[in-house]
Amino acid sequence: MLLVKGIKILLVDDEPNILEFLEMGLENEGFQVFTAQNGMSAVTMVKEHQPHVVILDVMMPGMDGFEVCRMLKKLHNAAIIMLTAKDEVGDRVKGLTLGADDYMVKPFSFEELLARIHARIRNHYPHLLSEVAIGPFRIDDRKLEISYNKQVLDLSPTEYALLKYVVTNHSLVLSKSMILDHVWGYDFGGDDNIVEVYIRSLRDKLNDREHQIIRTRRGAGYWVEIQG
C-alpha cells in the first residue's frame, strides 16, 4: 500500500452518488477527502484546504471542468485528474493543455483511479512519502532502492525507473510507447525493442522465468501481477 497520511484530495462532481462512492473509498484508503458539487465551490475549497490532488469532472452545469481546471492551476499547484463521460481526443488535449495531469473516462474502476492518484502523488509530492509498499515490492525513492520479498534488487538507474513505473501502475497494461515516454523520454529516437531488453533483464533479477510477475499481454504491453 501507499503510505498516504496527511494527503488531501478534493472531489468535484455534480452527481452526489459518485461523490459519496469515491469519498468513502478514498477515506478507507487513508486520504483526507473534501467534496464540491460545482465549480465555484471547488475554487473555494482549494483556497481553504489546498488539496494535493483534485479529481475533477468535466461535464458540470455552470462552470465546466475545463474552466475550473484553468482557475485552480492559477491558485494552487495541485495534481488534477479530469473525469469525463466522453472519450474524445479533443477533450483530453484541451484538459491537458489547461494543466490537467491525467484524464479518465467514465465509467472507470476505483482501482484504476486509485492507481492514477498514487502515481500523481509520487510525481508531485515525493517528499510526502516515506515508503511505498505494493504487494511484495517496496520502493524507497530516498535510497533509489526497490526490494522484492525483502531482498534489495541490484538495479541500474534505468532498471529502477522501469520497474518502479510498472509496479506502481500494476493495475494497468502499459504499452511500449507509454514505457518509452515515461522512462526514456518523449524525444527518445532509438528502437522500441529496448523495452523488451530491459524487461528481460528485470525478469532475470526477479527470478521470473515463467513471466508470472511481469506479464505480457500480446499486442498491448506489460503489467505486473500483484497478489492480494
UniProtKB/TrEMBL annotation:
GO terms for biological process: regulation of DNA-templated transcription. Keywords: DNA-binding, Phosphoprotein, Transcription, Transcription regulation, Two-component regulatory system. The keyword DNA damage does not apply. It comes from the Bacteria. Coiled coil: none annotated. PROSITE patterns: OMPR_PHOB, RESPONSE_REGULATORY. SMART domains: REC, Trans_reg_C. The modification 4-aspartylphosphate is found at residue 57. It holds the Pfam family Trans_reg_C. The keyword Coiled coil does not apply. Residues 8-121 form the Response regulatory domain. GO terms for molecular function: phosphorelay response regulator activity; transcription cis-regulatory region binding. Residues 129-226 form the OmpR/PhoB-type domain. GO terms for cellular component: cytosol; protein-DNA complex. Residues 129-226 bind DNA. This is Response regulator transcription factor. It comes from Paenibacillus agilis.
